[in-house]
Specification:
alpha+beta, 5-stranded mixed barrel, binds adenosine-5'-triphosphate, binds magnesium ion
Protein backbone atom coordinates (compact mmCIF):
# COMPACT_ATOMS: atom_id res chain seq x y z
CA UNK A 1 0.00 0.00 0.00
CA UNK A 2 1.15 3.49 -0.86
CA UNK A 3 1.23 5.82 2.08
CA UNK A 4 0.31 8.71 -0.22
CA UNK A 5 -3.02 6.94 -0.81
CA UNK A 6 -3.74 6.24 2.85
CA UNK A 7 -6.60 8.54 3.87
CA UNK A 8 -5.45 8.71 7.47
CA UNK A 9 -2.72 11.06 8.65
CA UNK A 10 -0.38 10.98 11.59
CA UNK A 11 -1.33 13.21 14.49
CA UNK A 12 1.54 14.86 16.28
CA UNK A 13 -0.18 15.17 19.62
CA UNK A 14 -2.14 12.70 21.64
CA UNK A 15 -5.87 13.39 21.88
CA UNK A 16 -6.67 15.13 25.18
CA UNK A 17 -9.48 12.78 26.12
CA UNK A 18 -7.36 9.62 25.89
CA UNK A 19 -5.35 8.71 28.97
CA UNK A 20 -4.04 5.26 28.05
CA UNK A 21 -1.01 4.49 25.93
CA UNK A 22 -2.93 2.15 23.63
CA UNK A 23 -5.60 4.72 22.75
CA UNK A 24 -3.09 7.56 22.42
CA UNK A 25 -0.69 5.72 20.12
CA UNK A 26 -3.35 3.94 18.06
CA UNK A 27 -5.19 7.21 17.50
CA UNK A 28 -2.09 9.24 16.67
CA UNK A 29 -0.85 6.60 14.21
CA UNK A 30 -4.24 6.38 12.50
CA UNK A 31 -5.22 2.84 13.50
CA UNK A 32 -8.47 3.78 15.19
CA UNK A 33 -10.82 6.71 15.44
CA UNK A 34 -12.93 7.29 18.52
CA UNK A 35 -16.64 7.81 17.96
CA UNK A 36 -17.49 8.12 21.65
CA UNK A 37 -16.23 6.66 24.92
CA UNK A 38 -15.75 2.92 24.43
CA UNK A 39 -16.61 2.95 20.72
CA UNK A 40 -13.98 3.06 17.99
CA UNK A 41 -13.83 2.74 14.22
CA UNK A 42 -10.98 0.70 12.82
CA UNK A 43 -9.13 2.47 10.03
CA UNK A 44 -7.02 0.82 7.28
CA UNK A 45 -3.95 0.11 9.46
CA UNK A 46 -6.02 -0.85 12.49
CA UNK A 47 -8.24 -3.18 10.51
CA UNK A 48 -5.21 -4.99 9.11
CA UNK A 49 -3.89 -5.64 12.62
CA UNK A 50 -7.32 -6.66 13.90
CA UNK A 51 -7.63 -9.12 10.99
CA UNK A 52 -4.24 -10.62 11.82
CA UNK A 53 -5.27 -11.22 15.42
CA UNK A 54 -8.52 -12.76 14.14
CA UNK A 55 -6.61 -15.05 11.79
CA UNK A 56 -4.40 -16.41 14.57
CA UNK A 57 -7.41 -17.01 16.82
CA UNK A 58 -9.36 -18.54 13.94
CA UNK A 59 -6.53 -20.95 13.07
CA UNK A 60 -6.28 -22.20 16.64
CA UNK A 61 -10.05 -22.55 17.04
CA UNK A 62 -10.29 -24.46 13.76
CA UNK A 63 -7.46 -26.68 15.02
CA UNK A 64 -9.56 -27.75 18.04
CA UNK A 65 -12.49 -28.53 15.76
CA UNK A 66 -14.42 -25.27 16.16
CA UNK A 67 -16.77 -24.45 13.29
CA UNK A 68 -17.02 -20.78 12.47
CA UNK A 69 -20.41 -19.15 12.23
CA UNK A 70 -21.74 -15.62 12.50
CA UNK A 71 -24.70 -15.18 14.79
CA UNK A 72 -27.21 -12.38 14.85
CA UNK A 73 -26.32 -9.48 17.12
CA UNK A 74 -29.90 -8.24 17.48
CA UNK A 75 -31.82 -10.65 19.69
CA UNK A 76 -35.48 -11.02 20.61
CA UNK A 77 -36.24 -10.39 24.28
CA UNK A 78 -37.72 -13.88 24.65
CA UNK A 79 -34.33 -15.61 24.44
CA UNK A 80 -33.06 -13.44 27.28
CA UNK A 81 -36.05 -13.92 29.54
CA UNK A 82 -35.71 -17.68 29.02
CA UNK A 83 -32.27 -17.61 30.66
CA UNK A 84 -32.98 -14.86 33.18
CA UNK A 85 -30.38 -12.61 31.60
CA UNK A 86 -32.92 -9.92 30.70
CA UNK A 87 -33.24 -8.91 34.36
CA UNK A 88 -29.93 -10.12 35.77
CA UNK A 89 -27.30 -8.86 33.35
CA UNK A 90 -26.70 -5.20 34.06
CA UNK A 91 -24.55 -4.57 30.98
CA UNK A 92 -27.24 -5.83 28.59
CA UNK A 93 -28.33 -3.21 26.08
CA UNK A 94 -32.09 -3.24 25.63
CA UNK A 95 -33.95 -1.70 22.73
CA UNK A 96 -37.56 -1.06 21.88
CA UNK A 97 -38.95 -0.94 18.34
CA UNK A 98 -41.59 1.53 17.20
CA UNK A 99 -44.17 -1.23 17.61
CA UNK A 100 -43.03 -1.72 21.22
CA UNK A 101 -41.22 -5.00 20.56
CA UNK A 102 -38.21 -5.45 22.78
CA UNK A 103 -34.73 -6.59 21.80
CA UNK A 104 -31.28 -7.05 23.27
CA UNK A 105 -27.89 -6.53 21.68
CA UNK A 106 -25.54 -9.51 21.94
CA UNK A 107 -23.18 -9.20 24.93
CA UNK A 108 -22.39 -12.94 24.84
CA UNK A 109 -24.47 -15.39 22.85
CA UNK A 110 -25.45 -18.46 24.83
CA UNK A 111 -29.03 -17.27 24.29
CA UNK A 112 -28.68 -17.69 20.55
CA UNK A 113 -26.17 -20.48 20.14
CA UNK A 114 -27.92 -22.97 22.44
CA UNK A 115 -31.20 -23.27 20.52
CA UNK A 116 -29.40 -22.87 17.18
CA UNK A 117 -26.94 -25.73 17.61
CA UNK A 118 -29.32 -28.00 19.49
CA UNK A 119 -31.80 -27.80 16.61
CA UNK A 120 -29.42 -30.15 14.81
CA UNK A 121 -28.51 -32.44 17.70
CA UNK A 122 -30.84 -35.41 18.14
CA UNK A 123 -28.74 -38.29 19.42
CA UNK A 124 -25.40 -38.82 21.18
CA UNK A 125 -23.95 -39.46 17.72
CA UNK A 126 -24.33 -35.75 16.96
CA UNK A 127 -22.05 -34.82 19.86
CA UNK A 128 -19.60 -33.29 20.61
CA UNK A 129 -20.04 -30.07 18.65
CA UNK A 130 -18.10 -26.86 18.91
CA UNK A 131 -18.97 -23.60 17.16
CA UNK A 132 -17.49 -20.14 17.37
CA UNK A 133 -17.82 -16.68 15.98
CA UNK A 134 -15.74 -13.53 15.92
CA UNK A 135 -18.23 -10.77 16.26
CA UNK A 136 -19.01 -7.42 17.83
CA UNK A 137 -20.45 -7.36 21.29
CA UNK A 138 -22.29 -4.59 23.07
CA UNK A 139 -22.11 -3.91 26.79
CA UNK A 140 -23.36 -1.02 28.83
CA UNK A 141 -20.05 -0.71 30.68
CA UNK A 142 -19.84 1.98 33.35
CA UNK A 143 -16.20 2.83 32.86
CA UNK A 144 -14.66 2.87 29.43
CA UNK A 145 -11.53 4.93 29.83
CA UNK A 146 -8.98 2.26 28.91
CA UNK A 147 -9.07 2.69 25.15
CA UNK A 148 -9.48 -0.64 23.39
CA UNK A 149 -9.23 -2.49 26.71
CA UNK A 150 -12.81 -1.75 27.67
CA UNK A 151 -15.24 -1.12 24.88
CA UNK A 152 -18.95 -0.54 24.96
CA UNK A 153 -18.76 -2.07 21.49
CA UNK A 154 -15.90 -4.56 21.15
CA UNK A 155 -14.78 -7.56 19.16
CA UNK A 156 -14.90 -10.95 20.85
CA UNK A 157 -14.24 -14.49 19.78
CA UNK A 158 -16.85 -16.61 21.50
CA UNK A 159 -16.88 -20.37 21.16
CA UNK A 160 -19.44 -22.77 22.64
CA UNK A 161 -19.17 -26.54 22.92
CA UNK A 162 -21.76 -29.26 23.57
CA UNK A 163 -20.85 -32.66 25.03
CA UNK A 164 -22.43 -35.98 25.78
CA UNK A 165 -20.70 -36.33 29.15
CA UNK A 166 -18.82 -34.29 31.73
CA UNK A 167 -15.79 -36.44 30.96
CA UNK A 168 -15.83 -35.52 27.30
CA UNK A 169 -16.28 -31.88 28.25
CA UNK A 170 -13.27 -32.02 30.60
CA UNK A 171 -11.10 -33.44 27.81
CA UNK A 172 -12.13 -30.70 25.40
CA UNK A 173 -11.84 -27.98 28.04
CA UNK A 174 -8.18 -28.91 28.60
CA UNK A 175 -7.55 -28.93 24.85
CA UNK A 176 -9.00 -25.45 24.38
CA UNK A 177 -7.00 -24.18 27.33
CA UNK A 178 -3.81 -25.32 25.60
CA UNK A 179 -4.96 -23.65 22.37
CA UNK A 180 -5.43 -20.40 24.32
CA UNK A 181 -1.83 -20.45 25.55
CA UNK A 182 -0.71 -21.00 21.94
CA UNK A 183 -2.77 -18.04 20.75
CA UNK A 184 -1.26 -15.64 23.29
CA UNK A 185 2.22 -16.87 22.52
CA UNK A 186 1.70 -16.30 18.79
CA UNK A 187 0.53 -12.78 19.59
CA UNK A 188 3.77 -12.12 21.46
CA UNK A 189 2.11 -12.19 24.87
CA UNK A 190 2.67 -14.18 28.03
CA UNK A 191 -0.64 -15.09 29.58
CA UNK A 192 -1.19 -16.61 32.98
CA UNK A 193 -4.31 -18.49 33.97
CA UNK A 194 -6.28 -17.75 37.11
CA UNK A 195 -8.69 -20.26 38.47
CA UNK A 196 -12.00 -18.67 39.36
CA UNK A 197 -15.56 -19.64 40.01
CA UNK A 198 -17.80 -19.39 36.95
CA UNK A 199 -19.61 -16.22 37.96
CA UNK A 200 -23.35 -15.68 37.92
CA UNK A 201 -24.45 -18.86 36.22
CA UNK A 202 -22.34 -21.67 37.55
CA UNK A 203 -20.29 -22.70 40.52
CA UNK A 204 -18.14 -24.73 38.17
CA UNK A 205 -14.54 -24.08 37.40
CA UNK A 206 -13.36 -21.44 34.96
CA UNK A 207 -10.04 -19.99 33.95
CA UNK A 208 -9.26 -16.39 33.16
CA UNK A 209 -6.23 -15.63 31.05
CA UNK A 210 -4.30 -12.63 32.29
CA UNK A 211 -1.59 -10.55 30.65
CA UNK A 212 0.46 -8.37 32.99
CA UNK A 213 0.06 -4.70 32.14
CA UNK A 214 -0.38 -1.54 34.18
CA UNK A 215 -3.27 -0.60 31.91
CA UNK A 216 -5.21 -3.67 33.07
CA UNK A 217 -8.08 -3.50 35.53
CA UNK A 218 -7.41 -6.70 37.45
CA UNK A 219 -5.01 -7.16 40.38
CA UNK A 220 -3.25 -10.48 40.42
CA UNK A 221 -0.61 -12.33 42.41
CA UNK A 222 1.87 -14.18 40.27
CA UNK A 223 5.25 -15.84 40.15
CA UNK A 224 7.16 -15.35 36.91
CA UNK A 225 7.96 -18.96 36.13
CA UNK A 226 4.49 -20.29 36.94
CA UNK A 227 1.73 -20.37 34.34
CA UNK A 228 -0.92 -19.87 36.99
CA UNK A 229 -1.76 -16.75 38.91
CA UNK A 230 -4.40 -15.69 41.44
CA UNK A 231 -6.87 -12.87 41.37
CA UNK A 232 -6.29 -10.68 44.43
CA UNK A 233 -10.05 -10.45 45.00
CA UNK A 234 -10.35 -14.16 45.64
CA UNK A 235 -6.82 -14.92 46.81
CA UNK A 236 -6.13 -16.43 50.19
CA UNK A 237 -2.43 -15.90 49.57
CA UNK A 238 -0.63 -12.57 50.00
CA UNK A 239 2.21 -10.78 48.25
CA UNK A 240 5.47 -12.39 49.40
CA UNK A 241 3.80 -15.74 50.05
CA UNK A 242 5.02 -18.84 48.34
CA UNK A 243 3.29 -19.65 45.03
CA UNK A 244 1.07 -22.55 46.06
CA UNK A 245 0.73 -23.78 42.49
CA UNK A 246 4.36 -24.51 41.78
CA UNK A 247 5.89 -24.17 45.25
CA UNK A 248 8.98 -22.66 43.68
CA UNK A 249 8.81 -18.92 44.05
CA UNK A 250 7.18 -16.07 45.91
CA UNK A 251 4.12 -14.21 44.78
CA UNK A 252 4.32 -10.63 43.57
CA UNK A 253 1.41 -8.29 42.95
CA UNK A 254 0.73 -6.80 39.51
CA UNK A 255 -1.95 -5.26 37.34
CA UNK A 256 -3.25 -7.44 34.55
CA UNK A 257 -5.82 -7.46 31.78
CA UNK A 258 -8.13 -10.38 31.19
CA UNK A 259 -7.66 -11.37 27.58
CA UNK A 260 -9.83 -14.47 27.57
CA UNK A 261 -11.59 -17.05 29.64
CA UNK A 262 -13.02 -20.55 29.51
CA UNK A 263 -16.09 -21.65 31.44
CA UNK A 264 -17.80 -24.89 32.28
CA UNK A 265 -21.44 -23.85 31.81
CA UNK A 266 -22.75 -27.20 32.94
CA UNK A 267 -26.36 -27.65 31.88
CA UNK A 268 -27.61 -24.19 32.75
CA UNK A 269 -28.49 -23.04 29.22
CA UNK A 270 -29.60 -26.36 27.76
CA UNK A 271 -32.03 -26.73 30.67
CA UNK A 272 -33.31 -23.18 30.21
CA UNK A 273 -34.10 -23.91 26.58
CA UNK A 274 -35.03 -27.51 27.38
CA UNK A 275 -32.94 -28.93 24.57
CA UNK A 276 -31.93 -32.59 24.88
CA UNK A 277 -30.38 -35.46 22.96
CA UNK A 278 -31.09 -39.19 23.10
CA UNK A 279 -28.35 -41.21 24.77
CA UNK A 280 -27.18 -44.77 24.03
CA UNK A 281 -29.98 -46.20 26.20
CA UNK A 282 -32.59 -44.16 24.36
CA UNK A 283 -33.06 -41.75 27.28
CA UNK A 284 -33.32 -37.98 26.94
CA UNK A 285 -30.28 -36.16 28.33
CA UNK A 286 -29.05 -32.61 28.60
CA UNK A 287 -25.63 -32.03 27.09
CA UNK A 288 -22.78 -30.40 29.04
CA UNK A 289 -21.88 -27.02 27.65
CA UNK A 290 -18.75 -24.88 27.70
CA UNK A 291 -18.01 -21.35 26.55
CA UNK A 292 -14.68 -19.84 25.60
CA UNK A 293 -14.14 -16.11 25.10
CA UNK A 294 -11.26 -14.04 23.79
CA UNK A 295 -11.21 -10.26 23.70
CA UNK A 296 -9.92 -9.61 20.19
CA UNK A 297 -10.03 -5.80 20.24
CA UNK A 298 -8.84 -5.75 23.86
CA UNK A 299 -5.85 -7.84 22.75
CA UNK A 300 -4.95 -5.22 20.17
CA UNK A 301 -4.84 -2.65 22.95
CA UNK A 302 -2.90 -4.93 25.30
CA UNK A 303 -0.29 -5.61 22.62
CA UNK A 304 0.27 -1.87 22.22
CA UNK A 305 0.51 -1.45 26.00
CA UNK A 306 3.24 -4.12 26.06
CA UNK A 307 5.07 -3.13 22.90
CA UNK A 308 5.90 0.54 22.68
CA UNK A 309 8.62 3.07 23.43
CA UNK A 310 8.78 6.86 23.55
CA UNK A 311 8.64 6.97 19.75
CA UNK A 312 5.60 4.82 19.20
CA UNK A 313 4.30 1.31 18.71
CA UNK A 314 6.57 -1.72 18.18
CA UNK A 315 4.34 -4.40 16.63
CA UNK A 316 5.24 -8.06 16.98
CA UNK A 317 5.59 -9.36 13.41
CA UNK A 318 2.60 -11.68 13.75
CA UNK A 319 0.14 -8.80 14.08
CA UNK A 320 1.88 -5.87 12.40
CA UNK A 321 -0.27 -4.17 9.74
CA UNK A 322 2.64 -4.58 7.33
CA UNK A 323 5.92 -6.47 7.60
CA UNK A 324 8.08 -3.81 6.00
CA UNK A 325 7.95 -0.03 5.79
CA UNK A 326 9.71 1.23 2.68
CA UNK A 327 10.80 4.86 2.97
CA UNK A 328 11.86 6.64 -0.17
CA UNK A 329 14.28 9.47 0.61
CA UNK A 330 14.83 10.51 -2.99
CA UNK A 331 16.31 8.74 -5.96
CA UNK A 332 14.41 6.73 -8.55
CA UNK A 333 14.61 3.24 -7.06
CA UNK A 334 11.56 3.40 -4.79
CA UNK A 335 8.97 2.20 -7.30
CA UNK A 336 11.10 -0.74 -8.42
CA UNK A 337 11.88 -1.82 -4.86
CA UNK A 338 8.21 -1.52 -3.89
CA UNK A 339 7.28 -3.80 -6.79
CA UNK A 340 10.00 -6.32 -5.99
CA UNK A 341 9.05 -6.56 -2.32
CA UNK A 342 5.43 -7.17 -3.24
CA UNK A 343 6.40 -9.82 -5.79
CA UNK A 344 8.44 -11.55 -3.08
CA UNK A 345 5.31 -11.72 -0.95
CA UNK A 346 6.34 -9.15 1.64
CA UNK A 347 3.53 -6.96 2.94
CA UNK A 348 4.87 -3.48 2.50
CA UNK A 349 3.74 0.04 3.28
CA UNK A 350 5.50 2.36 0.85
CA UNK A 351 6.12 5.89 2.03
CA UNK A 352 6.18 7.51 -1.39
CA UNK A 353 5.19 10.93 -0.07
CA UNK A 354 7.06 14.11 -0.60
CA UNK A 355 8.15 14.67 3.00
CA UNK A 356 11.40 15.21 4.90
CA UNK A 357 13.52 12.30 6.09
CA UNK A 358 12.98 13.35 9.69
CA UNK A 359 9.23 13.37 9.29
CA UNK A 360 9.22 9.97 7.59
CA UNK A 361 11.41 8.43 10.30
CA UNK A 362 9.28 9.80 13.12
CA UNK A 363 6.03 8.64 11.54
CA UNK A 364 7.47 5.24 10.75
CA UNK A 365 8.54 4.83 14.37
CA UNK A 366 5.07 5.79 15.54
CA UNK A 367 3.31 3.29 13.23
CA UNK A 368 5.72 0.60 14.41
CA UNK A 369 6.13 -1.73 11.42
CA UNK A 370 8.84 -4.34 12.28
CA UNK A 371 11.22 -3.75 9.33
CA UNK A 372 12.26 -0.43 7.85
CA UNK A 373 13.83 -0.29 4.38
CA UNK A 374 15.29 3.00 3.23
CA UNK A 375 16.08 3.81 -0.36
CA UNK A 376 17.91 7.00 -1.31
CA UNK A 377 20.18 8.33 -4.03
CA UNK A 378 22.96 8.53 -1.42
CA UNK A 379 23.15 4.76 -1.05
CA UNK A 380 25.21 2.77 -3.56
CA UNK A 381 23.72 1.14 -6.64
CA UNK A 382 21.03 -1.40 -5.79
CA UNK A 383 21.60 -0.91 -2.07
CA UNK A 384 19.08 -0.30 0.67
CA UNK A 385 19.39 0.49 4.35
CA UNK A 386 17.59 -1.92 6.66
CA UNK A 387 16.64 -1.40 10.29
CA UNK A 388 14.44 -3.26 12.68
CA UNK A 389 11.97 -1.23 14.76
CA UNK A 390 13.42 -2.89 17.86
CA UNK A 391 17.01 -1.93 17.06
CA UNK A 392 18.90 1.32 16.72
CA UNK A 393 21.56 0.31 14.20
CA UNK A 394 20.83 -0.02 10.49
CA UNK A 395 22.70 -2.05 7.88
CA UNK A 396 23.33 -1.29 4.21
CA UNK A 397 22.76 -4.30 1.96
CA UNK A 398 21.42 -5.33 -1.42
CA UNK A 399 17.68 -5.65 -1.89
CA UNK A 400 18.02 -9.42 -2.31
CA UNK A 401 19.82 -9.66 1.03
CA UNK A 402 17.11 -7.56 2.63
CA UNK A 403 14.35 -9.79 1.25
CA UNK A 404 16.14 -12.88 2.50
CA UNK A 405 16.63 -11.39 5.96
CA UNK A 406 12.99 -10.33 6.28
CA UNK A 407 11.64 -13.66 5.03
CA UNK A 408 13.75 -15.48 7.62
P1 LIG B 1 -14.08 -8.13 32.41
O1 LIG B 1 -13.94 -8.74 33.76
O2 LIG B 1 -12.83 -7.54 31.89
O3 LIG B 1 -15.28 -7.23 32.32
P2 LIG B 1 -15.70 -10.31 31.54
O4 LIG B 1 -15.49 -11.27 32.66
O5 LIG B 1 -16.92 -9.50 31.54
O6 LIG B 1 -14.40 -9.36 31.42
P3 LIG B 1 -16.44 -12.15 29.37
O7 LIG B 1 -17.85 -11.76 29.49
O8 LIG B 1 -16.13 -13.52 29.74
O9 LIG B 1 -15.51 -11.10 30.17
O10 LIG B 1 -15.91 -11.87 27.90
C1 LIG B 1 -14.87 -12.63 27.28
C2 LIG B 1 -13.65 -11.78 26.98
O11 LIG B 1 -14.03 -10.61 26.27
C3 LIG B 1 -12.93 -11.25 28.21
O12 LIG B 1 -12.00 -12.20 28.68
C4 LIG B 1 -12.24 -10.01 27.68
O13 LIG B 1 -11.01 -10.34 27.07
C5 LIG B 1 -13.19 -9.52 26.62
N1 LIG B 1 -14.02 -8.41 27.11
C6 LIG B 1 -14.99 -8.44 28.06
N2 LIG B 1 -15.54 -7.24 28.23
C7 LIG B 1 -14.90 -6.40 27.36
C8 LIG B 1 -15.02 -5.01 27.06
N3 LIG B 1 -15.93 -4.24 27.66
N4 LIG B 1 -14.20 -4.49 26.11
C9 LIG B 1 -13.29 -5.26 25.49
N5 LIG B 1 -13.13 -6.57 25.75
C10 LIG B 1 -13.92 -7.14 26.65
MG1 LIG C 1 -17.31 -7.62 32.24
Amino acid sequence: MRQSQLFTKIERNAPKDETTINAQLLTRAGFVSKLMAGVYSYLPLGLRTLEKIKTIVREEMDAVGGQEISMAMLHPKANWTTTGGWDKIDVLFKLKSRTEKEYALGQSEEEVVTPTVMKYVTTYKDLPKSVYQINWKFRDELRSKSGLLRGVEFLMKDMYSFHETQEDFDRYFAEVKRAYFRIYERLGLTAKATEASGGAFTQKISYEFMVLTDAGEDDILYFDACEFCVNVEIAKEKEGDKCTRCNKGTLAKAKASEVGNVFDLGQKFVKDFDVTFTDKEGKKQYPVMGCYGIGISRLMGVIVEKYNDEKGIIWPESVAPFTAHLLSLGGADGEKIYETLQKKGIQVLYDDRDASAGEKFAESDLIGIPWRIITSSKLGDGKVEVKKRTETESTVMTLEEAVELIKK
